[in-house]
Amino acid sequence: MPRSRNCPILLGHMGAEGSRIRGINSSFDQSAIMATVLGSLFLAGATIGALSLVLPHPSEYDSSALWSNVGISYVFGFAVLLFRQRLPVWAMQLCVLAGTIVVTRAVYHGHDPSGYYTFWYLWIGVYAFFFFGPRWGAAQVGAVGAAYAWVLTEVSGPTPVPRWIVTVGSILVAGLLVDALATRLRRETTAAARRASNLEAVSEVARQLATQSDSHAVGWAICSAAVRTAGASAAVLWRPTISGDALQADAAAGAEVEGLHLPFVTHASGAIQVFTSAEDRFESLRETHSAQELAPTFEASAALWEPVLKDEGAAVGVLAVYWRDGLEQVSSETRRAIGLLALEAAIAIDRGELLGRLEIAARTDDLTGLLNRRAWDEELGRELARADRSGTALCVAILDLDRFKEYNDTHGHQAGDRFLKQISSTWSQSLRTGDILARYGGDEFAVALPGTNLEHAQEMLDRLRAALPEDQTCSAGVCQWNGEESAEQLTARTDTLLYAAKAAGRNRVVLD
Fold first, then answer.
1. Which of 199, 235, 337, 484 might form a disulfide with 223, Cβ 3.0–4.6 angstroms?
2. Which residues, listed in sequence order, are joined to residue 248 by a DSSP beta bridge?
3. Vertex 228 angle, CA 223 and 233, to 5°
4. Other CB atoms within 10 A of residue 333 CB
5. CA angle 256, 259, 261 (to 5 degrees)
6. Is-contact 371 439, C-beta < 8 A?
7. What is the pLDDT of residue 286?
8. Residue 267, exposed/middle/buried by CB under 10 A (0-12, 13-18, 19+)?
9. What is the DSSP letter of 370?
10. What is the Cα–Cα distance from 22 to 12, expressed in whole angstroms?
């Protein structure tokens, strides 16, 4: 038996991108709606039939038979409504056939095959085409045609053949028109549902973007929404690597490809081509092999690439959607949805870059570009943990420029700022990779020397002091971590040594 066509349950992918609507299945709620409409038609027909007998009517009517017809219709109507929650579609097909018999019986006992009882045949055709579709609707109209032909042979009347052709033909045309309208309604309903689903997916990504500071989580949400809206198999957000020589799978959904690199010299890559051209592109495997850029990890048969653009139109990434099944084209609705997600990706990238800049600014001294005190405290904590794990030495020093206030008073604050910038650059170049230099505050600087004992720390600080220009001097306190004290205790001990160097006459290093 047929499935109800009024319940939009989609099978497989949707739309032009390999999505197919394989009919509309019956469900619990939809079957109940079909049964409610069918039962209501039986009751309406019974009521109209009763009124036709109560009001003046032709004398040739077989009233007793027609009253029994009214009773049968009421029984059918109430029974269908009573059991509407449990009636399967095939049972409603049988009820429609029973309705054809009841209408035929009314036409027969009315002794007028062209009378108004024949209008009830139209109800059957409209109902069947709307709920059962053209194939089973035509089958029900075929049953109506056979029943009406029997009435025309049993009840005498002029021109039976033209009458049959006009009546059945009108019912068939009306049914096909209803089916066309119902198909259009279902298509628009499906499209509206799809648009609503796409907007829901995009809004969910926007919510993630507003509440998540983790760029990877936002990227995954974008890729997941792309898979959902496009009915695809996988989606990847491609971003340029730091070195700028390749695209990297920054986030992915539906395929384990995160971290995969596509060098810019790769010609058979849609992602590379779209990143370069900043224009969207769709390809099927039948045309080229660009869609196979994820192989062998993921075998794709088609792909859609959408550039992720900044406001000025420059590409900062590519949102790629992949299908395993063959696909000839994608719908404009899918392209719009992926375009919106690419816009969200651009916003996420801009936000991530902004947060990165803010984080750097929060950890960096504005004047010298060195780490500030807050960043020093964080880095020193990490260095202590690393030294504890490795068992290596760690020395910490605090340096203070001697009589720097007098330098500012003599040369001006702008000259003092230039001096601080100069020594910050000079000292940074003098230190080893892995050493940490921070502006501790004012004219004080802090240095962490991992893997260094006091003897070598003294040598390093002497080099730093010797690098001071304009005969400027500094004092320093240096101590080696004892393996137990906290970062605060270590800093406080070093600060005490600095004050000892100042008290001893400045321009010296005091060690502990």
1. 235
2. 239, 261
3. 75
4. 18
5. 110
6. yes
7. 60
8. exposed
9. S
10. 8
Range with the largest mean pLDDT of 176-180, 313-317, 454-458: 454-458
Lookup: tokens for 326: 């063959």
- Kindly calculate the radius of gyration of the chain based on its CA atoms and give it in whole angstroms: 42
Q: How far is CA 234 from the centre of its chain?
A: 12
Which residues neighbour 1 within 8 Å (Cβ) at sequence distance 6 or greater? 88, 89, 90, 93
d(CA 168, CA 122): 9
Query: Residue 27: which of 52, 9, 2, 51 has the closest Cα?
Result: 9
Query: Are 283 and 328 a contacting pair, CB within 8 Å?
Result: no
Task: Taking residues 276-280, report their average pLDDT.
Answer: 90
- What integer best gives the mean pLDDT of the chain? 85
Long-range (24+ apart) CB contacts under 8 A made by 96-101 are 96/38, 96/124, 96/127, 96/128, 96/140, 97/140, 97/143, 99/38, 99/41, 99/42, 99/45, 99/123, 99/124, 100/124, 100/140, 100/143, 100/144, 100/147, 101/147
Cβ contacts of residue 298 below 8 Å, gap of 6+? 233, 234, 254, 255, 256, 257, 322
Return the SS3 of 58.
coil
**What pLDDT sits at residue 395?**
96
* C-alpha distances out from residue 119 to 76, 125, 147, 225, Å: 19, 10, 14, 51
For the stretch 190-228, pLDDT in tens is: 666 666 666 666 666 666 665 566 677 788 888 888 888
How far is Cα 181 from Cα 447, in angstroms, rounded to an integer?
79
What secondary structure, in 3-state letters, does 430-479 show? HCCCCCEEEEEECCEEEEEEECCCHHHHHHHHHHHHHCCCCCCCEEEEEE
Cβ contact 261:232 at 8 Å: no
The answer, yes or no, to whether the previous bond of 296 is cis (omega within 30 of 0) is yes
DSSP summary character for residue 21: -
Q: How far apart are CA 215 and CA 206, in angstroms?
A: 13
